[in-house]
Design goal:
alpha/beta, about 475 residues, 5-stranded parallel beta sheet, binds pyridoxal-5'-phosphate, 19 helices, lyase
Length: about 475
């Protein structure tokens, strides 16, 4: 399988190169040159398969040329063997129409483990083939950092430097990062906000000499391999609810548009997806874009759902490219315009291409609380705030009663227990697998938020390229 950039000029690459590159050299994002299509019989044949076997069937076309089916199975077995539930991503019923797909049974309690556990395995495999070394640098507002650290801790050919804004992530989130004491893991608390931390990371990537000296790489959701791993659970859930004979709708708590874009890929491959509901909090740029064609950046408002507090949704570019007719040069122009003016209109082709599959909703704090209470009172289910935003959007979407609606439950409620306690009066306990989190030793550096301080710290500890 070959991959092309959304901005039209970077060379086409195979899966291995795309995984290690992350971003394309023209600033675009990689997508397969065409979507692999599954027949009705191929989808029917997924019934009853384990998560790992489903993953192998769904991902095999995407990794063709880079991994054999045997290798892919090995990596998936290692990645998903670390989940605490035998079903990996189990479905839970809420009423006659609504279901939760629990994506938080991985080591760090959020859905990001599903993709990052596999990405850690892929990195290790590809780097040992090349005898190369990678330095991962990232900024996190919480969930990505812990999932990425867990996925690469102790790996020989990778160092990871993770920046978080000092005092602005929850205790659980910080400890999930700083109590990992492997020698290749470096946590850095930066004086400043998440945006300051992210700006420092961007500046390091823009320093071409520094980037190539340490072979810098990113683990945020612009990496195609992450999206690919997320396509699997759409198939896994839909088949259990009657696909391919029956259509299924999904509601997705959305920030960077990675998770819901994986649902779009599943639909493109032939899964009968009735609707993809994009659920946003009051930071509603995606809701405005999908309902009115208005993609314009506002100020971020902090909410109880920090992983959805975004101004710009990087993966939205992939939808604009594919739904708008795959004209990379035109999209590069459009994105340059957005980067200058912080606003753009979707073209008619982009709006029409998205309209038949996507709907969207903006859910405020009251809507979130109402959904949390509804799930608790009616089904005894405690939802985290992000999942509750998804459920609120699912319930108001007006989907025909014959179609099951699956809300993606993106985090374990214990990860956001203060917000859950405020809404429901119940404080969810931390699951046993992270039980001693608060008695473990922490290790992290505190640095001023300057480029000089951070690059000096990284340069002293990272492995330069041979
Ligand atoms: C990252 C995250 C999201 C948003 O997912 P995207 O792929 O960025 O749209 C939603 N909920 C939780 C808990 C997350 O960690």
């Amino acid at each position: 399988m070959q991959y092309q950039s959304t901005r039209g000029t970077a060379p086409a690459l195979g899966f291995e190169d795309v995984t290690l590159a992350g971003l394309a050299s023209d600033g675009g994002l990689y997508l397969p040159t065409s979507w692999p299509a599954f027949t009705v019989d191929q989808i029917s044949a997924l019934a009853g398969l384990s998560y790992v076997e489903t993953a192998v069937r769904v991902m095999a076309p995407f990794v063709a040329g880079s991994l054999s089916e045997y290798e892919l199975r090995e990596l998936c077995t290692a990645a998903y063997g670390r989940f605490s539930h035998q079903a990996v991503t189990p479905l839970v019923q809420l009423d006659h129409q609504h279901w939760l797909l629990e994506l938080f049974h991985g080591p760090t309690l959020a859905f990001k483990d599903v993709a990052l556990q596999l990405l850690g395995q892929l990195f290790e495999r590809f780097l040992s083939r090349r005898d190369d070394h990678l330095t991962i640098v990232g900024a996190t507002s919480g969930d990505t950092g812990s999932a990425a650290i867990d996925a690469v801790a102790g790996r020989e050919k990778i160092d990871i430097f993770m920046l978080h804004p000092e005092g602005r992530v929850s205790d659980v989130q910080r400890r999930q990062m700083t109590t990992v004491l492997a020698p290749n893991v470096y946590n850095i608390a930066i004086e400043g906000s998440f945006d300051d931390a992210q700006a420092l990371v961007k500046a390091m990537f823009n320093d071409a000499a520094f980037k190539s000296r340490f072979n810098l790489s990113a683990v945020n959701s612009i990496n195609w391999a992450r999206l690919m791993a997320q396509v699997v659970y759409y198939f896994y859930a839909a088949v259990r609810l009657g696909a391919p004979e029956r259509e299924v709708a999904f509601s997705v708590p959305t920030g960077n548009f990675g998770d819901v874009f994986a649902g779009y890929v599943a639909a493109k491959m032939g899964l009968p997806v009735a609707k993809l509901i994009v659920a946003t909090n009051v930071n509603d740029i995606l809701h405005r874009a999908l309902s009115e064609g208005d993609y314009s950046q506002g100020q971020v408002v902090p909410t109880a759902t920090p992983s959805m507090d975004i101004q710009v949704s990087s993966n939205f570019e992939r939808l604009l490219f594919d739904a708008g007719g795959r004209d990379g040069l035109a999209l590069a122009d459009q994105m340059r315009g957005f980067e200058t003016s912080k606003a753009m209109r979707l073209t008619n082709a982009q709006r029409d291409g998205a309209a038949h599959l996507f709907s969207s909703a903006r859910v405020d704090a009251d809507g979130m609380t109402t959904a949390m209470r509804w799930a608790y009172d009616g089904a005894g289910q405690i939802l985290d705030p992000h999942s509750a935003i998804g459920l609120a959007a699912a319930r108001e979407a007006g989907i025909d009663a014959s179609i099951p609606v699956v809300t993606l439950a993106t985090a374990h409620p214990a990860k956001f227990r203060d917000a859950v306690e405020r809404a429901t009066g119940t404080r969810p306990p931390l699951p046993a697998r992270v039980g001693d989190l608060f008695s473990r030793e922490e290790s992290y550096a505190k640095l001023p938020g300057t480029f000089e301080a951070v690059t000096a710290y990284v340069a002293e500890r990272a492995t330069p390229r041979g």
